[in-house]
Specification:
The chain is an alpha/beta fold. It contains eleven helices and twelve strands.
């Protein structure tokens, strides 16, 4: 566990963890103002009636936020002009400010650096493909899981995000698409992946509430399909089992990165709490309960975890399970001693998994040049990059 007293005053530069150190609890207690995305519909109505206005105003503002994606009270023409600012102050206070936006792939990949109410920094990434638009969102400012090959994990944990801070990342991306700011014309967010900064299972309550806001129909939420949402974890077994019982058939992505405990203890320090067998058992329980195929995330690191025998062992552990392997060529991070596997080793790893009967793909490394790919989100480094850089 992290030492809270050792956390520095500056939220932008949390204390870097020592190798193997885990931080499960958020070091910071401050919270942003309550936002409608933090609340159920009943709670929103209560908040509105508490200031002497009719409850249906909460429904109206919720539709503006989730359906019409309106962020300017001046456009809420169905709300009396004299009440708009009052209602907005209660239900839609400012949550985050965009500081920088970096683009790649002709503008269809867009990484945004956000400053939160307390100065904490997080990043989200919008990725537009021909058949879908995916938002990669952060659930924490920093991360406490301390994986040594991940820039986010090396930065340490600043604090958990609120439900609304998570949801706003998606809504902001939806606004950009609806307004035609992303090449390809107006569109909608079809997929959300909790693969940005942070360990979602370590911010469980806010993460699950965000899943409800994303999937509930308007005016309660965005009305997305749960099948278009993926929640990633390094393997917090009790929370994996809890998520299976929530009735939310989202995809579970397990960041495994090694099939043996000896190596995984180093690459994914939480393995010292729940080992490979325990984590995989929880994954199979999730698949059995939700009937959703589990995604195994595996970052291929040159001469570290890409040996043929490890591919064979991985295939053996996964055989006859409802599973898919997503191989990730390691994305470079500043100061890292590790790099991506050789192409020949990557191809051999794929061949051995397929020979073992395992479905496998190699992830697209979109966003690498703007430090927007898997494991590269670190927030502070983006401050030195120009706004709207191609």
């Amino acid at each position: 566990m992290g030492d809270w007293s050792a956390m520095p005053e500056d939220l932008e530069t949390p204390r870097r963890p020592v190798p193997g150190e885990l931080t499960f609890d958020s070091p910071r207690r401050g919270k942003p103002r309550r936002h409608l995305a933090d609340l159920t519909m009943a709670q929103r109505r209560e908040a509105i009636t508490a200031i002497g206005l009719p409850a249906f105003r909460a429904d109206q503002v919720s539709r503006h936020y989730f359906s019409r994606l309106g962020d300017d009270p001046a456009g809420w023409t169905d709300v009396p002009a004299g009440q708009r600012e009052q209602v907005s102050d209660v239900l839609t206070p400012p949550l985050m400010t965009a500081l920088r936006e970096l683009t790649a792939d002709g503008g269809t990949t867009r990484k945004t650096l956000w400053r939160l109410f307390d100065g904490a920094l997080v990043e989200s990434v919008l990725m537009r493909y021909p058949d879908r638009v995916t938002m990669c969102v952060s659930s924490q400012a920093g991360c406490g899981m301390n994986c040594p090959f991940c820039a986010t994990g090396q930065a340490g944990l600043t604090r958990n995000l609120s439900t609304a801070e998570i949801v706003e990342q998606v809504v902001s991306g939806a606004r950009s698409l609806a307004r035609g700011d992303v090449p390809g014309g107006p569109g909608r967010v079809s997929n959300v992946v909790f693969m940005g900064m942070g360990e979602p299972m370590a911010n469980y309550r806010s993460m699950v509430a965000a899943l409800h806001r994303l999937t509930e129909r308007s005016p309660a939420g965005l009305g997305m399909s749960a099948r278009g949402i993926t929640v990633s974890t390094v393997g917090l077994v009790p929370r994996m089992r809890q998520l299976a019982s929530e009735g939310l058939p989202v995809t579970l992505a397990l960041s495994l990165h090694a099939p043996d405990d000896e190596l995984r203890d180093t690459l994914v320090p939480v393995n010292t709490r729940w080992n490979v067998s325990e984590v995989l058992d929880a994954a199979w329980e999730y698949a059995a309960t939700t009937h959703r195929r589990v995604s195994i995330e595996y970052a291929l690191i040159k001469d570290i975890n890409d040996q043929g025998w490890r591919a064979d062992l991985l295939a053996k552990r996964l055989r006859r399970k409802l599973v898919h392997v997503n191989l990730i060529p390691l994305n470079p991070t500043p100061g890292s001693m590790w790099t991506a596997s050789r192409p020949a080793d990557e191809r051999e790893f794929v061949r051995r998994l397929q020979a073992g009967g395992i479905a496998v793909t190699v992830r697209d490394t979109r966003g690498r040049e703007i430090d927007g790919a898997c494991g590269q989100l670190a927030a502070v480094g983006s401050l030195s990059r120009p706004l709207d850089a191609e």
